[in-house]
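Hi W., the adenosine-5'-diphosphate complex you wanted:
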Amino acid sequence: MRIEVVRGDVTQQPVDAVVTAANQALKGGGGVDAAVHRAAGPELVRASRALAPCPTGQAVVTPAFDLAPVRWVVHAVGPRYRGRPQDADLLASAYTAALACADGVGARSVAFPAISTGVYGYPDEEAARVSVAALRGASTDVERVLLVAFGDRQERLWHAALG
Ligand code: ADP
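Structure:
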């Protein structure tokens, strides 16, 4: 699996599946989740709510509706950062669960935002390291992962984590 860093908006990537940073209720939120729901249209929230609740560290997959040609949206629930040891495990689990969801529907390319690093308050540098380690450790048929950096700083952090 190739991991690349791109600068931009996760809804604008030419991939099979887009990951969003969802909440447990899967009812749409702020930040990247708002952008994904806006782009996918109102059917997305109906489809995702039907699968709620989704525990922290897990993910579910729905069609991408108006986000076509993207085919799938993977709704991954990262942890709210509290500075506990299990936060890193839960964040890693959100990435690997999202990758497994994408794999399960046959996606070969997947775009990820920096899960938990916005409203959920996860320190971005540690989150970059955790996300890269989790993805590198996963066994999957996904061939290409795009880490979508919403700003300069995120782009640098992901490049640094990739080494
Ligand atoms: P969380 O609640 O998991 O912290 P947020 O949506 O608040 O999720 O933030 C997660 C990350 O997504 C932040 O780094 C934020 O800058 C980034 N982000 C926000 N909008 C987009 C977008 N359209 N594409 C990619 N990343 C985005």
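Residues 41 and 108 are 23 Å apart (CA to CA).

W.
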